[in-house]
Amino acid sequence: MPQRTDIHKVLIIGSGPIIIGQACEFDYSGTQACKALKKLGYEIVLVNSNPATIMTDPETADVTYIEPLNVERLEEIIAKERPDALLPNLGGQSGLNLCAELNKAGILDKYHVKVIGVQVDAIERGEDRIEFKHAMDKLGIEMARSEVAYSVEEALAIADKLDYPVVLRPAYTMGGAGGGLVYNKEELKTVCARGLQASLVGQVLVEESILGWEELELEVVRDKDNNMITVCFIENIDPLGVHTGDSFCAAPMLTISEECQKRLQEQAYKIVESVEVIGGTNVQFAHDPVTDRIIVIEINPRTSRSSALASKATGFPIALVSAMLATGLTLKDIPCGKYGTLDKYVPDGDYVVIKFARWAFEKFKGVEDKLGTQMRAVGEVMSIGKNYKEAFQKAIRSLETGRYGLGHAKNYDTMTKEELLHLLINPTSDRHFIMYEAIRKGATTEEIFDLTKVKTYFIEQMRELVEEEEEILKSKGHLPADALLIQAKKDGFSDKYLSQLLEIPEEEIRNHRISLGVEEAWEGVHVSGTKDSAYYYSTYNAQDKNPVSEAKPKIMILGGGPNRIGQGIEFDYCCVHAALALKKLGFETIIVNCNPETVSTDYDTSDKLYFEPLTLEDVLSIYKKEKPLGVIAQFGGQTPLNLAAELEKNGVKILGTAPAVIDLAEDRDLFRAMMEKLDIPMPESGMATTVDEALEIANKIGYPVMVRPSYVLGGRGMEVVYDDESMAGYMAAAVGVTPDRPILIDRFLNHATECEADAISDGTHAFVPAVMEHIELAGVHSGDSACILPSVHISPENVATIKEYTRKIAEEMHVRGLMNMQYAIENGKVYVLEANPRASRTVPLVSKVCNIRMVPLATDIITSELTGRPSPVPELKEQNIPYYGVKEAVFPFNMFPEVDPVLGPEMRSTGEVLGLSESYGEAFFKAQEAASLKLPLEGTVLISVNKKDKPEVVDVAKRFHEDGFKIIATGKTCDLLNESGIPAEKVKKLYEGRPNILDMITNGKIDLVVNSPAGKESVHDDSYLRKAAIKAKIPYMTTIAAAKATAEGIGYVKAHMEENNGVKSLQQMHSEIQ
User: Would you give the DSSP letter of residue 636?
Assistant: First the structure.
C-alpha cells in the first residue's frame, strides 16, 4: 500500500453548527474520515464548534477542540498542535472556505502544513466563478452564458445583454445563499446588493436562466493515479429553478437515455481531472430535453449533501474512501467483496431510491411557502423500493408530516381543477400533493407539465396511483377485493393510508393481508469496500433475501427520522451511542431509520441497519422477522415515542421507561396530581377545548398566560397571550383540538430564570450531573435560549432544590434511562415546568461539558433486566467542574429575510455551538463568536427597549459605558439613561424622520444592537431594526438577559487581553475535572 509516510498528524476541520444548506451530512462524512485515518495509523486533531455531533466526542479524534471556526482560533491550534497535514474537504463549505483563508493569510506555509485531498488552487478553480469558467472554456465544456459583476451597475449591464430572467450566484457561498432568480431591474438591484454582501470576495455571477431544464448530478471519485469511477447518477424530478437541496430526486436516473448518461460521465471525468480533486466530487449538469444541450452548472470539490445521499443510495462510503485516497492509497488498493477492488465499481443496484425534503415553513410567520434557487429545507428522508411508485410512497410516509399517502393533504381535495392548477404556478413544498389532486380533478398531463416542467413519465406514474386510489375508494367501509389490495401493497400504499381511505381500522387491513401471505420482504444493499456487509430495505415486490442471525440476543433501536427544527442531530447522537454501548454489552443491535444524512444510518454503526420509514407497519414487520428481546424508543426524540404505545399494544416489549409513564408526563392533570403528592410547586394551569373554557381559565389564573397544544416537540404552536382578545384569536386558529388533545394553559412566570436538568435514573435512584441555567428568561423556548453549564447565577440552595426535585420525580415516575426536567425560578422559588422522560437535545452538551457518558450509562440501566448487571447510578459522584460551557443557538433568519428574528416559545433554531472557558464571560464571548456574531470590543452600541425592560436597562448601559462604548439610544430609553447619569445620544426611530436608526445601521455606524421588541401593544412595527442588524451582520440582542451577558463577556475579554492562556483541547479540560 503506497500510503504517505511524510505525514503523521492530520488536522480535520468540521462544518460547525447545523444551518440550512449545511446539515449533519458533514457530521457523517467527518466521523467517517476520522475512522478511516485512525485505522491507517494517523493521529487526528479535530476542530469543530458544534457540541451536538458525535464527531466532537473525546473518543472520535485523538485531540478535539470545540472552538469557533475562524482564522485566528485555528492559527492558535495549529501553532500548538503542529499538524503535518490539513484535510479540508469533509467539513462542508465552512471547511473549504477556512482552508482557503488560512492559505491566503500565509498560516499554512508558516507552520509547514500540507493540504491533502484537494489542492488549495483546486478550491479556487471549483469555487471562484471566473476561475471555473476559464477552466471549462479550456476543456471545451459548455456553461450557461454568464458574466461576473463586482457592482450592481455592472450586473444591470450584463442582464440587459443576456435578457431577463437571469440568475445571480454569489461566489464562495452555500445553499444558494444570497442568490436568486430575478425578472426585472428592481429585483436585480435588491438581490445583487444582498449577493455582493454574502460573497466572501464581493463577486456575483449573472447568468442566463435555464429554468425548466432537467437537473442531473453525478458523484465522481478520483484517486492520485487518475482512476475515476462514478458512484451514482442522480436525477432531480423537480426541474431547474428549485435548489437541489429542496428538489425531490431519484437514483438511478429513470428517464435519461444511456447515451446522454455517457456524455455526462465523459464531461464529468474531464472536469474532475482538470480540477485534480482526490476523493469525492459532486458535478451538477443541466440538460435541455428540447435541444439536447448539456451545460455544467457547478462542481463541489468536497463531500456534499448529495454525496451523503449517493453513499446511502448505493452502499459506497464516499467519505471513508475519500479519506483513504487522500493519504495516497488508490482505488486499486482497496479490496471489495463484490467487485474485487474499488476501481472496478459500477452503480448497478436493481432498486429505486427517492430523496424527499422536509421543510419548516410553519415555524416562521410571514414566510411564503415558495421554493427557488435558495435552499429552504431543514432535513430530508431517503427511501428504497423495487419500483418508483413503491419508493415514492415510502418516502412520503417517512416524512412524519402526518401524511401517509399523497392524497387528501390539507384541503386540496375540495378545490376545483382551476384552483389547483393556479397553485402549481410557483413551486411550493406541497407541489406534488397538489399535482395528485389536480390529476384526480381531471388535469391532463400536458397541463401539469406546462406549469411544473416535471417530466411526463413522473406525472403518468402519479396518474396510475390516482386511478388505483379511485378504484380503492369504491370499497369504502369494508375491505377491497383481494387482487386490488395485493396490487395496492405492491405500489407502495401503506396500511395506514388504506385505512384512512377505506375508513376501517389499520389492524383489519394488516391482519387480512397477512392471511393472504402479503408481507414485507427485504433485500440487501451491498457496502462497497467490504467483504459482505449490507443494509436492508423492504419491498412487497420480491422474495425475502434477508438472513437472520440467532447468535446473540438482539435489541432494536428506533431512530429519529428526518431532521427538523426541534428534533435534530442530538437524537441521532443518542441512537449511535446506544448502538455502540449495546455492542459492548454483548447484544446484536438493529437500527431502523430513514435519514440519509446521519451517522446512525452508517452501515457499521449497528450490526444490522434497516433503511425504513418509522411507521407501525414497517417497524412491526421488522420486529416479527428479527424477534429482538425488546425495542428502545427513548433516544430518537418524539418520533419513536409517538409509536411506542401502539407497538406495545401489538405485543412489542419496550425497554426502559414504560410508555404509560411517558403519557403521564404529557397528561397535565395526572402530572399535576403527582407534583401535589410530592409537594413540588408548579405554575397554576388548566386545560381547555373551547374558547369559553379557555377564557374562564385564563381569567382565573390571571394574564399573561402561556398556551400550547399537548403532545408536541420543539414548542409547535406555543404563545404567550396577554388578553382575552388574543386568547379568542389563538383558540380560533388552533388546529386539531379534540377532548383527548386539549390546549394547555399555564400562568406565565414573569422575569423568571429558566433552567433545566438532565438526569440518569434507574427507577429508584437518579443522578443529576449539572444544572443548566438559561440566559434568556422564561418565555423563550429552551432550544433557542443560550445556556450556561454549570450554572452561574442560581443560588446553591436553588441548585440543591432542583437536584432534589429531579430525583424525587424520577423515582416517583420510575424512569429507567434518561430524563430531562425544565424549571423556572421566580423570586427565589423553584417551579416545575415540565418533565420529559426521554433523551433530550441537551444530552450531548451535558455529556461533553461534564465528561460523563450519559447514553451508555442509560443503556446499561435499560438492559439490566436482561443482563442482570447492577445499576451504575449509586456509583456516580458529584464533580467539581473548573470551567464553563455556554451553548448558543444558531438561527436561519438570514435565509428568511422577511421574518422578525425575535425569540419566543416556538423553537426556530436549526443548530447550536459551544464556547468553553474558565470564565463564564469569555465562554459567552466565544459562543457568540462561534455563532458568527463576533462581539465588538469597542465602538457604538444602540439601545432601544420596551416598557417592560426599562427598569433594568440602566444596569446594562452602565456596563457598556464602563467598557468604553459610545451609547446611542431612542426616545424614552435615552432620557432614562441621561437621568441616571449615563451619557447617551438620542437617535430617531424609523417613523420619527431622518437620519434615523436604519440609516445609521446601514452606514455601518453601529457595532452592537440591544433591542427588545415593542410587542403587540405598540402602534409602530420595530422589526425593521432587527432585520437590518441581520442584514448588516451586526451582533444583536433581543433580551435584556442576553445584553447583560454580552456586556459581561466583552468586559472580561477586554480586561484579560494581555494574558493569553492559549487554547485547551476537550481532553485536557476533562483531565482537570475533580
Answer: S
Give the C-alpha separation, 899 to 905, whole Å. Answer: 16
Output DSSP code: residue 363.
G
pLDDT reported for residue 373: 80
**Cell triple for residue 1050?**
466583552
Cell digits of residue 1029: 442588524
What type of residue sits at position 408?
Answer: H
Q: H or E element: which one contains 86?
A: strand 85-87
Task: Identify the burial level of 740 via C-beta atoms within 10 angstroms of its C-beta, where 0-12 means exposed, 13-18 middle and 19 or more buried.
Answer: exposed
> Burial of 548 by CB count in 10 Å (0-12 exposed, 13-18 middle, 19+ buried)?
exposed
Ramachandran class of 981: left when φ > 0, alpha when ψ lies in -120 to 50, beta otherwise:
left
pLDDT value at 857 more than 60: yes
361: exposed, middle or buried (C-beta count within 10 Å: 0-12, 13-18, 19+)? Answer: middle
Distance between alpha carbon 608 and the CA centroid of its chain, in Å? 25
From residue 104, alpha-carbon distances to 99, 101, 109, 577, 1056 in Å are 9, 5, 10, 39, 29
> pLDDT tens, 665-699?
888 788 999 999 999 999 988 888 888 888 888 88
Burial 711-723 (b: 16+ CB within 10 A, else e): eebbbbbbbbbbe
Rounded Cα–Cα distance for residues 160 and 304 (Å): 34
**Nearest Cα to Cα of residue 719 among 534, 729, 711:** 729
Beta bridge partners of 251: 353
Pairing of strands 521-526, 534-539: antiparallel
Helices (H), 40-140: 71-81, 92-104, 107-110, 120-127, 129-139
Quote the CA–CA distance of 904 and 220 in Å, as a whole number: 44
pLDDT digits (tens, 9 = 90+) for 524-582: 999 999 999 999 999 999 999 999 999 999 999 999 999 998 888 999 999 999 999 99
Which uninterrupted H or E stretch holds 746? strand 743-747
Q: CA-to-CA distance for 890 and 909, rounded, in angstroms?
A: 5
C-alpha 1017 chain-centroid distance? 34
> How would DSSP label each residue in 11-65?
EEE---S-BTTB-THHHHHHHHHHHHHHHTT-EEEEE---TTSGGGSTTTSSEEE
In our burial notation (b when 16+ CB lie closer than 10 A, e otherwise), range 14-47 reads: bbbbbbbbbbbbbbbbbbbbbbbbbebebbbbbb
Strand partners, 295: 286
The strand pair at 685-688 and 743-747 is best described as antiparallel
Residue 491, burial from CB neighbour count under 10 angstroms (0-12, 13-18, 19+): buried
Residues 6+ apart with CB under 8 A from 359: 246, 369, 376, 377, 378, 429
Kind and range of the H or E run holding 709:
strand 705-709
At residue 116's C-alpha, the angle toward residues 112 and 122, to 5°, is: 105
What is the rounded distance in angstroms from the CA atom of residue 605 to the CA atom of residue 591? Answer: 9
Please tell me the predicted confidence (pLDDT) of residue 196: 83
Instruction: Return d(Cα 247, Cα 427) in angstroms, integer.
Output: 10
Helix, strand, or coil (residue 635) = coil
93 Cβ contact partners less than 8 Å away, ≥ 6 residues apart: 15, 21, 22, 172, 173, 174, 302
Contact 1050, 963 (CB under 8 A): yes
pLDDT in tens, 156-179: 998 898 888 888 888 766 656 677
How far is residue 1012 CA from its own chain's centroid? 28
DSSP reduced 3-state for 1043? helix
Q: What's the pTM?
A: 0.91
CA distance 779 to 718: 10
Instruction: Decide: helix, strand or coil at residue 2.
Output: coil
Cell numbers representing residue 377 in the block = 429545507
In the chain the first and final C-alpha atoms are separated, in Å, by 45
